[in-house]
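[job 4471] stage=fold_predict status=RUNNING
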Amino acid sequence: MEYLTKDDLQKMFLAASKRIEKDKEKINKINVFPVPDQDTGGNLAKTLNGVREAIEGKEFKDLSEFSEAALDGALTAAQGNAGVIYTGFLAGFLPSLNENSVNSDKKDFSDRVDAEKLAIAFEKGRERAWQSIQNPKPGTILDIIDATVQVFKEEAKKEKNIVVIFKKAVKKAKEALLATPEKMELLKKANVVDAGGLGFLMILESYLEVLTPLFFKTSISGKKPSGKSKRFVQMFSNRYEVVALIENPRFSEEEIKNKLKKLGNSIDIVQVGNRIKIHIHTDFPDNVKNIMKNIGQIQTLREQDMAKEVVGEPSIKKVSIGIVTDEIADLLPKIVEKYQIEVVPFKIDWPDGENLAGDNIYQKMREAEKAGIKTLPKTSQASPKEFLDAFKRQFEKGFEEIVCITLSSKLSGGYNSACQARDILPEEQKNKVFIIDSYQVTCGEALLVLKAIELIQEQRGVSEIIQELKNTIPNIYVYAFLKDPKWLEWGGRISHSQANWIRRLQKIGVRPLLGIKDGVVEQIGFRFGVKETPEAIFKEIETKSKKVRKNGKKIRVVITHCDNLEEAEKLKDILKNIKAEVSFINLTGSVVGVHVGPGALIAGWTEI
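[job 4471] inference complete, writing structure tokens
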């Protein structure tokens, strides 16, 4: 076999996941380094299971797409030292498969991996694996990776058959594994080999089994990797393990290591794109989590008491809190899906607009204007039953408590509907639903939901989350500029003369500014000397956030628009000037949008 295809690699990765899941307890039993928590096999299995979920049953158009999916799955699921180190290996290995591709005019070989390319990929994987560890030590998984890489580097220069090289690499990796006790006194004392190293050897063996199914009948009947282990008292240098996946990190890997090194050991860090996985053993989990929070947006966080795990007690700090909100928050579908958020719909009634052309309500409103239709859509709040159904669905998913965030009670009865729904629940569930009036709409409400997600991911208790959300509400600011006041005029919210007055101001560069104040939409000021809406909103955010930014804090922004994506994208680009974190851009929901009209641009911000 001279080439591997993406299909071969897919089979190899699936086989590796199956093998580690099957033999994880064999790995767990010999786990004594860096701590005797007996979870190396389990953590490696979870990591590879993340890869499996990302690639199983899927067809990929090319090797690049496969590599991205597999690496994303590993990074998301990675747990423990071995899992994070292996993910580091994949972070170098997988992208390298797409480099130095061979192409010709007659045939495209870019999706084929030959021995030389595989050797380069293994070397890049080795480099990233070593970089992921704070203090690499001999006698660990790194030795087995090194041995494998050395074989591929030497053999790929003279041998084209990948199977032949793999067999030699597995043999060398096994020798390196059996030598680990001679390099680490702790392993020798326990009469075991390195657990992570055994896991990596099993992965290599599973690869080879796919390429040559008869491999196991001829190769594993020899000396076993480990004899009977010896039990002895081993102390934990640090009691807790904290693992976090963070998006948009504000610091480099080296800076993060420097921030964490005084708080513990076994620090492993792997960054792929805009996401970074961090692992640490510590006696100060709260301090570590505070640092994690300041590094970037926490996607997942896991805290484990390793001392409890060893004696079989529940060891993972678990917070089971679901979120319910309404569609006025204008969350992206991927956020709703990822965090299993229940979104309660509001109603829109517009018989005259049903047959109008357009992909969204704003395009239909423009068509209505052309057709001379004077009626506008009518909106109504969600009913208590719709909130009740959302609460029930969250409990059915297994969430033990629920945080419900609604739009401002001064603008809609949605908050009251949620409260009524909670009162209908059985007594044992009623006291587990906590309802927050956001005093906001659209992107302002979204910012509060994002804050709730962040707090839940930080494993905060529900009482602390509620208090933090209440503290955040007064520090959320929302601004909106209209494209044309005629929609407010059409809806009877301003007079014709008021609409003309606003138009005249816009022509001379004066932009009337709408905002949310104490839960109500009000005109909160003007911006002078600007003619474009994105610039006007940017100036407002820049001015009002200056004190926050001067104190060293960053701001988070959410942008929504009423069929005005071009200006929304322009605002996002301008916000780079103050290093604002723009969480997302989305279409403003119909319930809010029909009041401000097509072309309106809305942005909300808060400090993070």
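[job 4471] summary: The chain is about 50% helix and 15% strand.
[job 4471] exit 0
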